Amino acid sequence: MQSVAEAARVVLLTAAPEAKRRAARDLARAWRGGRLAHRFDMAMPDRPAWPERPELLAPRHMPKRRSGGSLVGRIAMLHALAHIEFVAIDLAVDLVGRFGAAFPRGFTDDWLSVAADEAMHFALLDRRLKTLGSHYGALPAHDGLWQAAEATAGDALARLAIVPMVLEARGLDVTPATIERFVSAGDERSAAILRRILADEIRHVAAGTRWFRHACDQQEFGAAETWKHLVNTYLRGTVKPPFNDSARRSAGLTQDFYHAVAC
Questions:
Q1: 3-state SS of the chain?
Q2: pLDDT at residue 213, rounded to an integer
Q3: Do the Cβ atoms of 26 and 114 come closer than 8 Å?
Q4: Nearest 10 degrees: CA dihedral of 209, 197, 186, 65?
Q5: How many CB atoms lie within 10 A of CB 14?
Q6: pLDDT of residue 159
Q7: Distance CA 238, CA 137 (A)
Q8: Which pLDDT belongs to residue 66?
Q9: How far apart are CA 123 and CA 65, in angstroms?
Q10: Residues of the chain predicted below pLDDT 70
Q11: What is the signed CA dihedral for 64, 67, 71, 74, rounded to 10 degrees?
C-alpha cells in the first residue's frame, strides 16, 4: 500500500494549479478511504513545484493595489487570495508529510482535510477570477508564505506557531473588512466566497492551535509562553492589531497568546 508520505510528495511536486488541486483532493479522499498507509518513508521537497506564472516577487516589490471597489482592484484582491489558497494547499500537505510521524493519526486526518478545503477555496477563487475576465497567474504574487515554511522546516512546533497561528490567523482579522468592501462594490458573489473561506479558516486555525497545545503538553511546555518565544524567533515582521478576537477565540487562540507580542 502506498504511504501517505509518498502521496503527499506527489502533490507537492505537481506544478500545474488545476492538477495540484485535483491531486490534493484525491490525496484527502484516498486517506479517508483507507487506501494509504500511515507511514512516513519519503522526504518532502525543500520547495513544492509551482507554475511559471504568477511571477513571484518580494513583498516589498509587489505593485500597490488599487481601490477594492473598482473591477481592477477586486480582481487584484481575488488574485492575491487565490495565491494564498494555492500555497496553502502545499503548506497543509507538507505539514503532514514532514511532521506527521511525530503526531497521532488525527493530525493527518485534520491536515489532509485542511488541504482539501484549501484546494476547494482555490477553485472557487480561480473560477471567480475567470468570470471577471482574469485568471490565476495573470498578476504577480509574493512568496512570503513559503518563506515561513522554509524557516520552520526543522521544527513542527515552530511551523504550527507561525503558519496557522500567525499567518492564517491574520486572515481571520482582515477578511471581514474585505467582505464588506466587496459588498459595498455590489460584488455579492465574491463576498459569499470569502464568507465560506472565513468559516473554514476558523477551523484551520483551531487545528493549528489544538495540535500546538498537544505538542506542548507532550513536552511539558507552557503553550502561550512557547508560542511567544517561537514567534519572536521565527516570524519575519510583527503581530499587529486590530484582532478579530471573536473569531480567534472560536479557534482556541486566546488573548494570552497574542496580545503580549502585538505591536
A1: CCEHHHHHHHHHCCCCHHHHHHHHHHHHHHHHCCCCECCCCCCCCCCCCCCCCCCEECHHHCCCCCCCCCHHHHHHHHHHHHHHHHHHHHHHHHHHHHHHHHCCHHHHHHHHHHHHHHHHHHHHHHHHHHHCCCCCCCCCEECHHHHHHHHCCCCHHHHHHHHHHHHHHHHHHHHHHHHHHHHHCCCHHHHHHHHHHHHHHHHHHHHHHHHHHHHHHHCCCCHHHHHHHHHHHHCCCCECCCCCHHHHHHCCCCHHHHHHHEC
A2: 97
A3: no
A4: 70
A5: 21
A6: 97
A7: 28
A8: 55
A9: 23
A10: 60-68, 260, 262-263
A11: 70
- pLDDT computed for residue 189 by the predictor: 98
Residue type, position 44, single letter = M
Q: Is the pTM of this model over 0.85?
A: yes
Task: Tell me how many degrees the CA angle 233-234-236 measures, rounded to the nearest 5.
Answer: 115
Q: Within the chain, what is the greatest distance between any pair of CA atoms? A: 53
d(CA 187, CA 164): 28
Q: Which domains does the chain have, with CATH numbers?
A: 4-37+64-261 (1.20.1260)
What are the tens digits of pLDDT across the range 177-220? 999 999 999 999 999 999 999 999 999 999 999 999 999 999 99
Question: Which residue is listed with cell 513559503?
Answer: 146
**Residue labelled with grid coordinates 471567480:** 128
Is the bond preceding residue 140 a cis peptide, omega within 30 degrees?
A: no
Model pLDDT, residue 139: 95
